[in-house]
Amino acid sequence: MRAQFVLSEIGVGLRRNLTMTFAVIVSVALSLALFGGALLMREQVSTMKDYWYDKVNVSIFLCNKADAATAAKCAKGAVTGQQKEQIEADLKKMDIVESVQHESADQAFKHYKEQYGDTAIASVVTPDQMQESFRVKLKDPEKYKVVATAFAGRDGVESVQDQRNILQNLFDLMNGMNIAALGVMGLMLIIALMLIVNTVRVSAFSRRRETGIMRLVGASSFYIQMPFIMEAAFAGLLGGAVACVLLLVGRYFLIDHGIALAEKMQLVNFIGWDAVLAKLPLVIAIGLLMPAVAAFIALRKYLKV
């Protein structure tokens, strides 16, 4: 009987404040969709870092004849065979180095032609202008500075470059977008909470007579508050469900179909459906609990008779 009464009161409250309930659902859905999107963006950046950082190398570029005439670091001339052997031997002795690969000037020229063969500048570049290099794969890419400190400035070495820097601007951009999404999510969350509190206030005010009678006949505070809390939780649950749909639809159209980023950017390792599905229970839980807690706090003041 009590459960039936609570459910009937929930229905009455939702019908009386239909417009505000709809506004709560929309604001909760948008804020939670942004929250879930931010979580997925952070995971995407992490996945890309793990994927690409494992593939990029530290490059030690060696001096050639052209560098000897133009670069101050190569003032002592082009790298010698003995210097190359010593550099390679020292690299292989380092515990943080996983593998070392030598790229000759001819190989560098071949790779350059494969990448820029159709450009105007590629037609005037010659093999003797290309630099020999060592491609060093580290066990921990974060320890690039150890290699840079050990080999930068050595005779025969023109420069030491960490290829992660090429990707860092992209990751910084994505992290910036993630922070912006979290900021908008926070704003939408505040709006949703304000709407929830106002909806509870209006509902409590419109039923103040009933709640006063219930208080007089001995009903507990929790029993009186329960319909209002359930109303807010139900609206939040619907908002969370809509947010889940938005996340699924967004993943479908952005990556698999529609814009189809997976086809257009095949070198990017996009997060899978398992990552999206793993976030949905959290979105639903927040959508259910956040309005209920906000309603409970608001009711402590507005249901006093």
From TrEMBL:
Subunit structure: Forms a membrane-associated complex with FtsE.
Keyword Ribonucleoprotein: no
Segments forming domain ABC3 transporter permease C-terminal: 184-304
Function in brief: Part of the ABC transporter FtsEX involved in cellular division.
Gene: ftsX
Listed InterPro entries: ABC3_permease_C (IPR003838), FtsX (IPR004513), FtsX_actino (IPR047929), FtsX_ECD (IPR040690)
Signal peptide range: none
Protein name as it appears in the record: Cell division protein FtsX
Transmembrane portions of the chain: 21-41, 179-200, 212-230, 236-255, 276-299
Subcellular locations according to the entry: Cell membrane
Chain ranges of the FtsX extracellular domain: 56-160
Family the entry assigns: Belongs to the ABC-4 integral membrane protein family. FtsX subfamily.
Superkingdom in the source lineage: Bacteria
Main location class: membrane
Topological type in the membrane: Multi-pass membrane protein
Keywords: Cell cycle, Cell division, Cell membrane, Membrane, Transmembrane, Transmembrane helix
Keyword ATP-binding recorded: no
